[in-house]
Amino acid sequence: MTQWVLEGLRAGIRTTRYPFAPETAAGVSPGLPAAGELARPDLERLIARCPTAALASADGRLVVDARRCVHCFRCVRGSDTPAPWQGGYEWATGEGTLGKTFTRSLHIRVVDAGDCGACLHEVKQLAGPYYSLHRLGFFISPTPRQADVLLVVGPGTDQMREALTKAYKAMPTPRTVIAVGTCALSGGVFGSNFACGGGISSILPVDVEVPGNPPPPLAILHALLLATGRAAPAAKERQTAGERMP
Amino acid sequence: MEIPVQRHAQCSRRSLHFEIDCQPQRLVQVCSALSRAGFGFAGLIVEEWQRQWWLRYAFHSLSGSGGKILRRTLAEPPEPADFAPLCSSADWIDVLIRQPLTRTSYPSISSEVLAADWHEREAEDLFELTFEGHPRLGDFVLHDVAWQEGLAPMRKDFNAHTPPSERRPNPAWRPQRIVHEPGSFLMPIGPIYGGVSESVHFTLETVGEDVIRALPRLFYKYRAVEKIAEGRAAPDLLLLAERFNGIAAFAHGLACAQAIETVAGVEPPARALTLRVMLAELERLRHHTGTIHDICESTALTVAASQAAILEEELLRLSGSLTGHRYLFGLLMPGGLSRDFEQHSLADAVRAVQDIARRLTQLERHLVTTSSFLDRLEEVGIVTPALARTYGLVGPVARASGLACDLRRAQPYAAYDAYTFDIPQEQDGDGYARLRVLFAEARQASRILGQAVNMLPDGPVCVACPDIPPGAALGWSEAPVGATFHWIHADEQGRVSRYHIMSPSFANWHGFHLAAEKFAFQDFPIILATFGLSAAETDR
Ligand code: SF4
């Protein structure tokens, strides 16, 4: 058994400094397309390339609805004038309705309402050494009865509707619902059909939304901080022009 | 020192695909002969095509050679004596039944080919076809507590966006009890259970401490992927193929892209084929590391779980910084890849992969000397080789039970025939054997990456893939969980008329109860973790 103690010590501390300092390691986030100025024909061409209507033009500028982006990279690859792209991960929007009481102890029930596995996998990474959500007073709860937050991934399938509603009803108030991932916000590539509801808000009242397909762990962490009033939401339209993507 | 085999003469080799027209009355005989001849059952593909039912039973040889596909059609099945020559020359054999739409009842083959069991149940639920002799139809994909029988959503006259307004679920539905010992009871688990877990329901039948059997109930995550695929153009189909099971996005995208390319008659450039192998192996390594993490966690060995989690996150970051996406979304295109990579960034990535593989081996060395850990895995959740074969299990689970089936070797695709690698195999079929296979495969993934980066051909990474002509094809790949098959049928306008995914998790969940028989309750999470299955991949 001593070998495991040594192993643990040898690995050292890997945990991100976020939210106390920005995380700058490569590969922690896929980034998102950003708003920007483009010539009219280029603008129209880009908008037509997007399969989920995440891009639009407003007053001749490119605007992005991150809630719909499925990271297909069609607006940056194979296009002569790529859309501006922006790194970062503080993407969550909504209102933190949980007050100060929860800043040191917030219990989260994760529910899979039909996700592809990637969002759930990113949530799982949060518990690992690189993100260590416990250090911030966040805990994954085995039951909704002791949970303050219902963290839902997936577009909300018809056959999960009942279980999801039951879990929500079993929670004590005040409670917050965080919808994680493009599918949970807009249905993503699945849209809305007889088997799948086009987003969690068709089933439950959603308080905080995190875009991304899937959102990286840091974006989910940002959502949790936002829910407890410890971080500001993402700007409605991320204005700055981004860098170029390969 | 490995000597890389140069990949020449791609087109000199031929992969022979037979299609046998068959009458329903001979179906069982023909399928059981193929199964006895050692052909693997890929799946049952039901189509409503030109006012007919087309039922395609796809079988593949376990030792093909890959290469250009040649099709042959037989107007009727050979006589029993002539099966042997057919089986020795064919790589794929499709047994095809064509009948008018009015005929909705067909013989069930699952008493002879057990792997077809769930395929028939799925077809019954989604198409309202009956399979005579099948012991248990109904309540499979569409749960009786949610939908009425007879919905048949995959039929062409069902509109996915305007379902019938009337819903008649059966609230009295209860899971079937199999154990009838005095004092036995049924314990339901799920669909929401554990810490962070996919939505699956289990019914555990128990007489106290010991669980007698555990059956999974799936399809809580049914998103009707195959239905909404209909009418799409090829590139938009790929979006779905990548995103219905995000943790094996590349493997599924690859199978789908290959099917599209076969229909379109397009061969991606050599550089793309090699890069596809590299990305697929990167995904396999990451996926296996994740499964190893889950196994460590299920035994509550926290330090080991953390070590594995570190490696997993490093692989995700590596994938992210190399390709732009942590789960390799958006890379595949019909005709190749959507982007190229600099040689130095590939070389750096492979060096990082080799370092991670080395640390993974170190983790294995520590684990196999931790007796408390081994106690939890050894002789737990045993699947015997005979049962693994009968159930047609696939992937690492099958290879841990003595089956050496791997599509990278059996039906080579992309550039796999150019590399030297082993297919790890174990005989014990228990949880520990599955863990050893995962570690060994992770090492092989790093080995393939090491070879590929040194023999990467120059040139473009994509050729134009024109609008697809009418036609149909099967694409396949060895996903991290096992063999996956994607069937695409394009209509006159080049739009998808039928898309069917036959996934490895679907095959292995079918056999999951073999490992979950007569066990102590606390072993359940461990058995589950060593199978490493995905519900998203099954439910679609
Ligand atoms: S990445 Fe794809 S989904 Fe996202 S905005 Fe660009 S084109 Fe649209």
Question: Any chance you could write out the topology, listing elements then pairs?
Answer:
The complex is a heterodimer of chains A (246) and B (540).
Chain A: H1 2-11, E1 32-33, E2 36-37, H2 40-49, E3 55-58, E4 61-64, E5 85-86, E6 93-94, E7 106-112, H3 118-126, E8 138-140, E9 149-153, H4 161-169, E10 176-180, H5 182-186, E11 192-193, E12 196-197, E13 208-210, H6 217-227
Chain B: E1 14-21, H1 24-36, E2 40-49, E3 52-60, E4 68-74, H2 83-89, E5 92-100, E6 105-107, H3 117-127, E7 130-132, E8 185-189, E9 201-206, E10 210-217, H4 225-229, H5 234-243, H6 249-264, H7 270-298, H8 302-323, E11 332-333, E12 336-337, H9 343-367, H10 371-377, H11 385-391, H12 395-399, H13 407-410, H14 431-454, E13 471-479, E14 482-490, E15 496-502, H15 504-510, H16 512-515, E16 517-520, H17 524-531, H18 535-539
Parallel strand pairs in B: 1-4, 1-5, 6-7
Antiparallel strand pairs in B: 2-3, 3-5, 8-9, 9-10, 10-16, 11-12, 13-14, 14-15
Helix pairs in contact in B: 5-6, 6-7, 7-8, 7-14, 7-17, 8-9, 9-14, 14-17
Describe this structure in words.
Chain A has 246 residues and is of the alpha/beta class. Chain A has helices at residues 2-11, 40-49, 118-126, 161-169, 182-186, 217-227; strands at 32-33, 36-37, 55-58, 61-64, 85-86, 93-94, 106-112, 138-140, 149-153, 176-180, 192-193, 196-197, 208-210. Chain A has a domain at 93-227: Rossmann fold (3-Layer(aba) Sandwich). Chain A has six helices and 13 strands. In chain A, the strands form four sheets. Chain A has a six-stranded mixed β-sheet, with helices on both faces. Chain A has a three-stranded antiparallel β-sheet with strand order 2-4-3, with helices on one face. Chain A has a two-stranded antiparallel sheet with strand order 1-5. The termini of chain A are far apart. In chain B, 39% of the residues lie in helices and 19% in strands. Chain B has a five-stranded mixed β-sheet with strand order 2-3-5-1-4, covered by helices on one side. A four-stranded antiparallel β-sheet of chain B has the order 8-9-10-16. Chain B has a three-stranded antiparallel β-sheet with strand order 13-14-15. With 540 residues, chain B is an alpha+beta fold. Chain B folds into two domains: 1-159, Beta Polymerase, domain 2, CATH 3.30.460; 228-539, Orthogonal Bundle (Cytochrome-c3 Hydrogenase, chain B), CATH 1.10.645. In chain B, a hairpin with a 3-residue loop joins strand 9 and strand 10. Chain B has 18 helices and 16 strands. At the A-B interface, helix 1, strand 7, helix 3, helix 4 and strand 11 of A face helix 4, helix 5, helix 8 and helix 18 of B. The complex binds iron/sulfur cluster. Iron/sulfur cluster is lined by residues 33, 49-50, 52, 54-55, 69-75 of chain A.
